[in-house]
Amino acid sequence: MGREVSESCVESLLTEIVSSYCNGFYADKPELAARRIEAIGFQVGHQLSERYTMDRPRFTDHLEAIKFICKDFWSEVFKKQIDNLKTNHRGTFVLQDNRFRWLSRMSVDPSIETLGSIQDPSAMAENKAAQAIGMHLYFPCGIIRGALSNLGIPCAVSADISNLPACKSFHFEFFYSANSLN
Amino acid sequence: MAPVAPRSGDAIFANVERVNAELFTLTYGAIVRQLLTDLEEVEEVNKQLDQMGYNIGIRLIDEFLAKSNVSRCIDFKETAEVIAKKSHGDGFLEGVWSWIHPGFLRKQKRKKMEKRKIENESVGLKMFLGVTATVGNWNAEGTTCSLILEDNPLVDFVELPDTCQGLYYCNILSGVIRGALEMVSMKTEVTWIRDMLRGDDAFELQLKLLKQVPEEYPYKDDE
Amino acid sequence: MIVCVAVVGHQNNPLYIQSFTEADDALKLHHIVHCSLDVVDERVNNPKKSSPTLNETFLGLLYPTENYKVYGYLTNTKVKLILVTTDLDVRDADVRNFFSKFHAAYVDAVSNPFHVPGKKITSRTFAERVSTIVKSFGLSSGS
Amino acid sequence: MAAIYSLYVINKSGGLIFCKDYGSAGKMDTNDSLRLASLWHSMHAISQQLSPVNGCAGIELLQADTFDLHCFQSLTGTKFFVVCEPGALHMESLLKYIYELYTDYVLKNPFYEMEMPIRCELFDINLSQAVQKDRVALLGR
């Protein structure tokens, strides 16, 4: 392994991406902020997949590429492997990480006001905390989508955070329309 | 009371969680690229990067202090003496820097330089390797100094397009340093003197001490 | 001597092509590169089942012409790297070595935050690096 | 193991941002806690002025009949102090460890706003563990 930096550097950047886009210039447009944050992640995932696959044989099928994402890629980025991989064999995959690294320092204050500007008040009242954390998941979702799409698997990625706040287990779900899955 | 030497950057680095630098480098690059798209004006991007750095600095400094043992050693009241201030400032900044970018020290240690040197020479990059940030160019009063980097993980892979000539790509660093120093009562102005992305031979940040805020004294507070 | 190298995207869009000859045969070389792409596709889509090199990124000699030998390499991200040489006696190890350096240079080039995926690689650093790799081709230090 | 009664964190302008009682002894209501915090902040500052020795960083230990108060102030001006049973050992290590927890679980929590009251579940959890843990283990750090 090459150069390293302290993890705080990365964590700080993530915090700042979200706060710049959500509280700064797109304070009143959360969907737009989300899309920008996702785009940043997409670029990173795209580039990382290029780097991390450099010294390995070509994948024979999509499943092999997905396994690579769950194991090697996940370990490089999140310092552990995925805990569980499920699929419905129709293009939907669910990746479960029981201790998702990037949220391991996060606690949400139940009375949180950080995202008080979200436009749909009913959704906000229902689960403000989940929404606040959700903003922090667009970046990793973007990374995964970027990596997969560069490996020839264009897809949509979403993160499920329904089991908040105590449980730090996360589902990343992605869907792609493919008929070549063996 | 002579200050005890703080833990070296190496020792701190051994103590903190690490990730590979590529993730950091590429994430930062993607942020800059996205900001350029969204803010359009290069000047605005510079400002935003500096602000982000500042926000990071004011939080990071505590982790540095907590994990480096510096907390017990440096007493800023002693800084009344210029010489003391200098030596303090020196160790402190280098400490902060090596913590922010511990990769330097580590790389030096691992003797990987030879291989990389060859690689880099082969691509014609006149990059110095195995360097750490140095603090120098103090003025006579001890209020201005420079932080000089000959290597910088933020700019691995980066080539500025012609359309971004006014961009201070690494501006987040000046913000980090400014924020961190402000939290230990030193108001500074941080400006770029040299920038390798603009063709200079090193990165040089000039730190100018504007004022040393005295320690909080409750009676003067805004109560 | 290497006369031409190329990087081609997954939709056969040229990302980088550079010839290294004095003569004015760029067009011809481009044509050779273009033809080799079909061979790559052919090779990848219909792999010889028995081949031990089934999933190797290095595809080996794609086809020889009268004056040239054309080698190919396919990354996991479906990017094709092509090498055209006039050398008749080429060592396999040299070609592999060339591609691994070429690949590394490509990966660094697309790691530039300002590079747009799918667009041509305009980086000067990349061009210089490639030309250095090309010059050192076959200088058998094995490094 | 000697008991810890309570833990306080004061921001650099003297505002109480965290307070937690452990065990039943020495419990105080919110008003008293706030008063204690601002009182301590002032006393700490005065002690620096009173000191005949240059460079005094303020009171580190206050000993009374019924309790000890150990204080640690970071260079950034945040004060951490524990009130504990007289004679409780290794409080400096504990405070230093709490400072680290504060940097990890408060400052790195993106939802925490600087200088504001600390409401971070993970900080609470880790604190409780630290307070109950054998503090000798912290010495080797």
Automatic annotation (TrEMBL), chain A:
Protein species of origin: Solanum commersonii
GO CC entries: cis-Golgi network; trans-Golgi network; TRAPP complex
Family designation: Belongs to the TRAPP small subunits family. BET3 subfamily.
Identification of the protein by name: Trafficking protein particle complex subunit 6B
A Pfam family it matches: TRAPP
InterPro entries, alphabetized: NO_sig/Golgi_transp_ligand-bd, TRAPP_component, TRAPPC6/Trs33
GO biological process: endoplasmic reticulum to Golgi vesicle-mediated transport
Automatic annotation (TrEMBL), chain B:
GO BP terms in the entry: Golgi vesicle transport
Annotated transmembrane regions: none
UniProt main location, coarse: endoplasmic reticulum
Keyword Transport: yes
Gene3D superfamilies the UniProt entry points to: Trafficking protein particle complex subunit 3
Lineage: Eukaryota, Viridiplantae, Streptophyta, Embryophyta, Tracheophyta
Family: Belongs to the TRAPP small subunits family. BET3 subfamily.
PANTHER family in UniProt: TRAFFICKING PROTEIN PARTICLE COMPLEX SUBUNIT 3 (PTHR13048)
Statement: the UniProt record of this protein carries the keyword Transport: yes
GO cellular component: endoplasmic reticulum; Golgi apparatus; TRAPP complex
Keywords, sorted A to Z: Endoplasmic reticulum, ER-Golgi transport, Golgi apparatus, Transport
Subcellular localization: Endoplasmic reticulum; Golgi apparatus, cis-Golgi network
Protein name: Trafficking protein particle complex subunit
Matches recorded under InterPro entries: Bet3, NO_sig/Golgi_transp_ligand-bd, TRAPP_component
Gene source species: Solanum commersonii (Commerson's wild potato)
Pfam families: TRAPP
From TrEMBL, chain C:
SUPFAM superfamilies the record matches: SNARE-like
InterPro entries per record: Longin-like_dom_sf (IPR011012), Sedlin (IPR006722), TRAPPC2L (IPR044760)
Any single biological process term in GO: endoplasmic reticulum to Golgi vesicle-mediated transport
CC annotations in GO: cytoplasm
Pfam families: Sedlin_N
PANTHER family given in the database record: TRAFFICKING PROTEIN PARTICLE COMPLEX SUBUNIT 2
Family listed: Belongs to the TRAPP small subunits family. Sedlin subfamily.
Protein name: Trafficking protein particle complex subunit 2-like protein
UniProtKB/TrEMBL annotation, chain D:
Keyword Coiled coil attributed: no
Highest taxon in the source lineage: Eukaryota
Localization annotation: Endoplasmic reticulum; Golgi apparatus, cis-Golgi network; Golgi apparatus
Entry keyword annotation includes DNA-binding: no
Pfam families attached to this UniProt entry: Sybindin
UniProtKB keywords: Endoplasmic reticulum, ER-Golgi transport, Golgi apparatus, Transport
One GO biological process term: endoplasmic reticulum to Golgi vesicle-mediated transport
Cellular component GO terms held in the UniProt record: endoplasmic reticulum; Golgi apparatus; TRAPP complex
Predominant cellular place of this UniProt entry's protein: endoplasmic reticulum
Alphabetical list of SMART domains matching this protein: Sybindin
Family under the similarity heading: Belongs to the TRAPP small subunits family. TRAPPC4 subfamily.
Subunit structure: Part of the multisubunit transport protein particle (TRAPP) complex.
This protein's name: Trafficking protein particle complex subunit
Organism field: Solanum commersonii
